[in-house]
UniProtKB/TrEMBL annotation, chain A:
<dbReference type="InterPro" id="IPR014806">
    <property type="entry name" value="Ufc1"/>
</dbReference>
<dbReference type="Pfam" id="PF08694">
    <property type="entry name" value="UFC1"/>
</dbReference>
<dbReference type="GO" id="GO:1990592">
    <property type="term" value="P:protein K69-linked ufmylation"/>
</dbReference>
<comment type="similarity">
    <text>Belongs to the ubiquitin-conjugating enzyme family. UFC1 subfamily.</text>
</comment>
<comment type="function">
    <text>E2-like enzyme which forms an intermediate with UFM1 via a thioester linkage.</text>
</comment>
<protein>
    <recommendedName>
        <fullName>Ubiquitin-fold modifier-conjugating enzyme 1</fullName>
    </recommendedName>
</protein>
<keyword id="KW-0833">Ubl conjugation pathway</keyword>
<dbReference type="GO" id="GO:0005737">
    <property type="term" value="C:cytoplasm"/>
</dbReference>
<dbReference type="InterPro" id="IPR016135">
    <property type="entry name" value="UBQ-conjugating_enzyme/RWD"/>
</dbReference>
TrEMBL record, chain B:
<dbReference type="Pfam" id="PF00899">
    <property type="entry name" value="ThiF"/>
</dbReference>
<dbReference type="GO" id="GO:0005829">
    <property type="term" value="C:cytosol"/>
</dbReference>
<keyword id="KW-0833">Ubl conjugation pathway</keyword>
<comment type="similarity">
    <text>Belongs to the ubiquitin-activating E1 family. UBA5 subfamily.</text>
</comment>
<dbReference type="GO" id="GO:0046872">
    <property type="term" value="F:metal ion binding"/>
</dbReference>
<protein>
    <recommendedName>
        <fullName>Ubiquitin-like modifier-activating enzyme 5</fullName>
    </recommendedName>
</protein>
<feature type="region of interest" description="Disordered">
    <location>
        <begin position="362"/>
        <end position="385"/>
    </location>
</feature>
<feature type="compositionally biased region" description="Basic and acidic residues">
    <location>
        <begin position="373"/>
        <end position="385"/>
    </location>
</feature>
<dbReference type="GO" id="GO:0005524">
    <property type="term" value="F:ATP binding"/>
</dbReference>
Length: 163, 420
């Protein structure tokens, strides 16, 4: 993993509660921690003028949706972002989806699930249950956008997402 | 006068052409429906009737004669037992679809198929699915083909993602009550392609004490593995990092530009074959069932090993199953002592006669990358195998953890909303 991502990760607080959505009571505590960690991460980004996503959960904290964006040559490319907390969370990470980009890149599974690098899964597993949603975004989606957006822009397949 | 004739002729032509079109359409539709009835008739003539009892009679129209010959040859004692067996196949891709076809042809009693995906033309480098099935759900397309191959098999299909909160409890329920007799399945086969889905199967199986077999093909398509999981008795998928075949190709330098994963029909077919072979041995009691088998396609090298459960496994249900298994072993030992019989049935996964490549390593071996936790669990991969990644960190610093907050979830959600 690159040094930039590493230092971003280190500034996101780790979570305490080892509970997933199948454990109603534990999940309440965990969800609170998730929200605190995401708030901290977004605030960090804003402070450094590196804001790049926005997400909001549904009532139960299972389905999350929002937007993420990436600047290339002063053009902002913006996409819908969504994911679901799996039944085995936090042992396994959520699968991040950019549904609008489905079919536009080979680095994606059907439905717009992004294809993670070989580093993602081991790092998540090693840090389970302390890594949460904010970490998944920082080490999964951030690097993915940085690698794939320039390529897609060059191929001319995402000009309609320019804002 | 002439004008009038022309006008009459024109309208006559018009009527005639309309009638012609109508007649043609009618004839065409008649031909279509006749052809459909004819197809249905030939289909029903081709499809075979259900067979009540497996026969060993060697005739051209007995689909089971060559399987029942296993009995005559003394390989299998009771082949018909397979008809009472119920199996779930999770993931109907390059491995799962082929495994399901093998089991169908073997005359398995019941198959429950799970997959959320659709058939795509991009799947055509693998076996089983046909191009004209593109767009159908994998489970539906698979059932369509399999029912024709063997109408004796019962099928149940679910087109959903087992890892999602919406489907997970239903999935557990089908494992628990999906068998032919309404009870728990005999076996669950994991033919999925990702860690999350494997972990979901692992959780479900630990919770209900379900024996399962895991299978996998590497992303570079040149190695694969199968692993038997008996909750409490053998390591579960959480007991240690996933075992994968060690190859000289460094995963970290593997060229992955422009693709997520490669796949070969050969490797997938071989892994499906190894998996179902193990299933048959397990269900029909013949040969030696492999606990963990790795296949390196580059060298045609096979590794075999046993992985003991980890007493500090992160899955609490695994720990409960380990306790139950220890109690069972104790009770059996006591029983044996009381009976005083000299013949003991070995229930522990240890193999006395190691032939080739079988390494059952009990001594912890120090390795720089591996944490002591793993060594404590007496885990060491056999030659040709390795753990996919290092085990979990044992502890984190308190100051790295998220600080408490007086706010409730609703307040935090609106705080997040304001950061838009
Ligand atoms: Zn375990």
């Amino acid at each position: 993993m690159d040094e930039g991502t590493k230092s971003v990760l280190q500034k996101i607080p780790l979570l305490r509660t080892n509970a997933g959505p199948r454990d109603a009571e534990g999940w309440n505590r965990r969800l609170k921690e998730e929200l605190l960690a995401v708030i901290k991460y977004v605030s960090n980004n804003k402070e450094q003028d590196r804001d790049w996503f926005f997400i909001q959960p549904d009532e139960k904290g299972i389905k999350w949706s929002g937007k993420c964006w990436y600047y290339l040559d002063q053009v902002r490319y913006e996409f819908e972002l969504e994911f679901e907390i799996p039944a085995t969370y936090p042992t396994t990470a959520p699968e991040l989806k950019l549904p609008e980009l489905d079919g536009k890149t080979a680095k994606m599974y059907r439905g717009g699930k992004i294809c993670q690098t070989v580093h993602f899964q081991p790092l998540w597993a090693r840090n389970a249950p302390h890594f949460g949603i904010a970490h998944a975004l920082a080490m999964g989606l951030g690097p993915w956008l940085a690698a794939e957006i320039p390529d897609m822009v060059q191929r001319g397949v995402i000009s309609s997402f320019a804002k | 006068m002439e004008e009038l004739t022309d006008e009459l002729r024109a309208s006559f032509d018009k009527v005639l052409s309309t009638l012609n079109t109508q007649a043609r359409e009618k004839t065409e539709s008649l031909v279509r429906s006749l052809k459909a009835s004819l197809d249905a008739l030939t289909d029903s003539a081709k499809a075979r009737e259900k067979i009540d009892q497996m026969s060993s009679e060697v005739t051209a129209d007995n689909p089971y004669s060559r399987l029942m010959a296993l009995k005559r040859m003394g390989i299998v004692e009771d082949y018909e037992k397979i008809r009472e067996c119920s199996i779930a196949v999770v993931g109907i891709g390059g491995v799962g679809s082929v495994a399901a076809e093998m089991l169908t042809r073997c005359g398995i009693g019941k198959l429950i198929l799970f997959d959320y995906d659709k058939v795509e033309l991009a799947n055509m480098n693998r076996l089983f699915f046909r191009p004209e099935q593109s767009g159908l759900s994998k489970v539906e397309a698979a059932k369509e083909t399999l029912v024709e191959i063997n109408p004796d098999v019962q099928f149940e299909t679910y087109n959903y993602d087992i890892t999602s909160m919406e489907s997970f409890s239903h999935f557990c329920g089908r494992l628990k009550e999906g068998a032919l007799d309404g009870g728990q399945l005999d076996l669950v086969l994991s033919c999925v392609d990702n860690y999350g889905a494997r972990m979901a199967i692992n959780s479900a199986c630990n919770e209900i004490g379900q024996t399962w077999m895991e299978s996998g093909v590497s992303e570079n398509a040149v190695s694969g593995h199968i692993q038997l999981m008996v909750p409490g008795k053998l390591a579960c998928f959480s007991c240690a990092p996933p075992l994968v075949v060690a190859s000289e190709i460094d995963e970290r330098t593997l060229k992955r530009e422009g693709v997520c994963a490669a796949s070969l029909p050969t490797t997938m077919g071989i892994v499906a074959g190894l998996l179902v072979q193990n299933v048959l041995k397990h269900l029909l009691n013949f040969g030696q069932v492999s606990e963990c088998l790795g296949y390196n396609a580059m060298k045609d090298f096979f590794s075999l090993m046993v992985l003991q459960p980890n007493p500090s496994c992160s899955d609490s249900w695994c720990l409960k199953q380990q306790e139950l298994f220890a109690q069972k072993v104790k009770a059996e030992e006591k029983n044996r002592a009381e009976i005083g019989s000299g013949e003991v049935e070995e229930d522990l996964p240890l193999h006395a006669e190691n032939e080739w490549n079988i390494v059952v390593e009990d001594d912890p071996v120090e390795s720089a990358g591996q944490k002591s936790e793993l060594n404590e669990a007496k885990h060491k991969p056999a030659e040709g195998l390795k753990f996919e990644f290092e085990p979990a960190k044992s502890s984190v610093n308190n100051d790295e953890l998220v600080a408490g907050s007086e706010k409730d979830i609703g307040e935090l959600m609106s705080q997040l909303d304001q950061l838009k």
